[in-house]
Every structure is written in C-alpha cells, then in structure tokens.
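ok so i was messing around last nite and threw this chain in just to see what happens. nothing serious, just curious
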Amino acid sequence: MKFHTRKWVKPEDLNPNGTLFGGSLLKWIDEEAAIYAIIQLESQSVVTKLISEINFVSSARQGDIIELGLTATDFGRSSITLRCEVRNKITRKSILTIDRLVFVNLGADGLPAPHGKTEITYIRDRFQDGPAAS
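result:
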C-alpha cells in the first residue's frame, strides 16, 4: 500500500475529547480516494458509491502527523474498489482501516459507464518516451 497524503492534526480537527474528529478524517479519506480513483480511471466523472465498515483502531491528537494509504483491490466494469489505511507517520501505529471504498465512473448521461481499466497503472508508465525535450 502506498501512502499518498500526509495531514497535520490541528486544533480545528479535534473533537471535544481532544482527539481527531472522525468526520474530519473521513472527509480527507473520501477526497484522497476520489483523486486516486480519478487518476486510475483517467476520468473526472467519478463518484463515491460505497464506504464499507470503518474501523477506528486508535486515535490521533493535536500535532500528530498522519498519512493516508490507498490501494486498488478490484476493477469492475464501471467501478474501482479501494482499500484504505490511515496511520501515524512517525510511530506507524494504525489509526483507521476501511476494507472497501467503491467509486463509479459516470458517463455524460450521469449513469455508470465502462472505464476499460483492469489493473493499477502509474502516470509515469502512461508515457512511452518520457517528457518531451525542449
């Protein structure tokens, strides 16, 4: 699993108990997962369909640096399924896991549309000759 994003837990991210508010964390995850799906499917018409059980393993406190990890686990005809883990950047202690986040590719009519992808790809591999020389 690759950890794509780091977040610094600030006072505005805390709940009344002084720990990271779950809603803030879920917003960060949904945004990062959507970006991941957009890049993988090479389509900006991607929406969140499902987020499975969310397992809060431990908490984060103000000043902690956390990182969000995502990986694609399945490619459907019009969907992509991801797995997520959030951990403390310094201690590597797991904070949260989500087994399934499903995103659906939409056509111009707003309905699910085939995306034609079957495996994880990286932007660097999409360019045969690398960047053009100037």
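not much to say yet. The first helix runs from residue 22 to 41.
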